[in-house]
Amino acid sequence: MEFKIDFAAAKPLFAEESSGGITVYFKERNGFKMIIVMKPYATKEEIKLVEQRLIDLGLKPHPIYGEFRTVIGAIGDERLIKKEHNIFALSGVEEIIPVLKPYKLAGREIKSEDTVIDIGSVKIGASNPIAVMAGPCAVEDAAQLLEVALKVKEAGACILRGGAYKPRTSPYAFQGLAEDGLKMLADVKDETGLPIVTEVLDTRDVEIVARYTDILQIGARNMQNFRLLTECGNIGKPVLLKRGLCSTIEEWLMAAEYVLAAGNPNVILCERGIRTFETATRNTVDISAIPVIKELSHLPIVVDPSHGTGNWRFVGAVAKGAVAAGADALMIEVHPDPANAISDGAQSLKPDKFNALMCELEPVARAVGRRM
Ligand code: PEP
Ligand code: MN
Hints:
Blueprint: H1 7-10, E1 12-18, E2 21-26, E3 32-38, H2 44-56, E4 60-65, E5 70-76, E6 93-98, E7 117-119, E8 122-124, E9 131-135, H3 142-155, E10 159-161, H4 178-192, E11 196-199, H5 206-212, E12 215-218, H6 226-235, E13 239-242, H7 249-261, E14 267-271, H8 289-296, E15 301-303, H9 305-309, H10 312-325, E16 329-333, H11 351-367
Parallel strand pairs: 9-10, 9-16, 10-11, 11-12, 12-13, 13-14, 14-15, 15-16
Antiparallel strand pairs: 1-2, 3-5, 3-6, 4-5, 7-8
């Protein structure tokens, strides 16, 4: 594990001598945060003692148990730390390091290894195969959903997408089948074995959506719905967090931070295009967000070329570009009859086109050392 410390920028609050060396507490602009690096092979008891000391101080410990070493992130109000609280003196503590980035838990400072999200048989992130989530924009009826699910599964998709709660620009447009749609998703999961990703629009629906789905999707329009982020953080199921329509990468990571800070480490980021002056495509897919996220964060990143382009003809090229740039997964809309789809038909691939794309993605993935 490698940590970079910029002591000048960290503005030490105070430093003190202790039997084990010098403890430095840091003050910074965006809240207070430090990482306590435990000695290699520190015992469980030593780790628990440090965690308990932090809790006693009113701080929230976020332990990350590594193979050789455990690090404990501590978040809280700097005023709670007083001179006499010498965490450094506790046995098993090797080092205390400040976190300088505003996204404390989403950043690489606290966790240098890539996070892998475990969705049963599917693993997303690190060197795992590139996961493809595919399915219709909206769950329309049971037959449509089953037909798409069987076809995308046959083509190699490993997760089924489909909205039961739809965030529509017009209040008069189809809003989704709500719980009936969730039940259809669950039935198709039983039949096909495909795990489900579906959107939750409102804090009031988090519990019911979580009951049926494997991954809770937070849509672009809700990226900064902070109550929703926290509720999804409390529930503990993996969260797919789409980038907001006009959000910077830092704002996106801060949104992820809400889920992580609520105690849910299972966040998947999803680049789905942002608003620019360009009108030839529905949105502009920010391919460079992939390597930027990879540098700044340990969280896996999915790319959604369907909402990103708004046009099925461009979906394949952007999907291949995303894989080449290092995406961990793709989210692609597929519909058996796009011309008659209730929503997003223009950007939906027919199953045979999706199948052809899956074959074309394979060599691209191989070229960058990944597998599909
Ligand atoms: C969707 O995935 O169906 C959706 C509405 O996406 P976004 O939030 O990216 O617009
Ligand atoms: Mn859609």
